[in-house]
4Fe-4S dicluster domain-containing protein (Azonexus hydrophilus), 267 residues
Amino acid sequence: MSIEKAQKARRKFLQSLGLTVGIVGASLLGYIPVSSARASLLRPPGALDEADLLASCIKCGQCVQVCPVQAIKLGDITDGFGLGVPYIAARDQACDFSCDAVQCILACPTGALTYEKPDFLGVRNGAPLAHAPILKAKANDPEPSLNLKERFGLARLARPESCLAVQGKGFKGQARGPGFKGEMRYVDVDRWAPIPVRDHPYEREICDLCVTECPIADAISLQATGDGRFIPMVHEQCVGCGVCEMICPVETAAIVVDAQAVWKGGA
């Protein structure tokens, strides 16, 4: 390692240490409720369970720098012990796997984000994926799957009464309006470069954006309920990326992703 790189790494460590000392000190003085930080934040792919993640993450920000859609943010002072720890606000910008290889995991220097947990860390029931998820954008590649062993969340139809498909309605226009800044990869536009969602308008007789824009094959589908109505069904291959929540055109989103939720069976 060069002297310049070593000095840069040392500065990052000292900054992280200073922030940690500062927030612990402030919490002890009663200024910040560290133990009551925001719960159930969606963490990046491959994140360890929450307690292990907080213990392993050194808040270096490498995962933030390599994300092609800038989906990963770092926790702020209101997140208590989660200060500087990466998270994803899926409604604002989901992980659409534009990197193909889950670059955030590759960039993590400590294993806080990992393809496979070490043996001494337990795996929650329902967290493992039945088989490697198939990335739709890589369907024609020799190896179309993602090397993910566990889901990092699970989609759920939280507001069926708001869902356009449930109402038997279609959708036409910009999914989140002209002011939405989120980006996504559209293979029919560019195999590699994500574009703003507002630059890719839709026209659907029945709204199925959560199905068609999901980057993972067989993770979600529409099931007919009669009278021209449909209901989104989440399947076991859902990894919790949050694209369905981001792309849902109704406010508030009809479908959401629950952080670190597990598969409990059913269709």
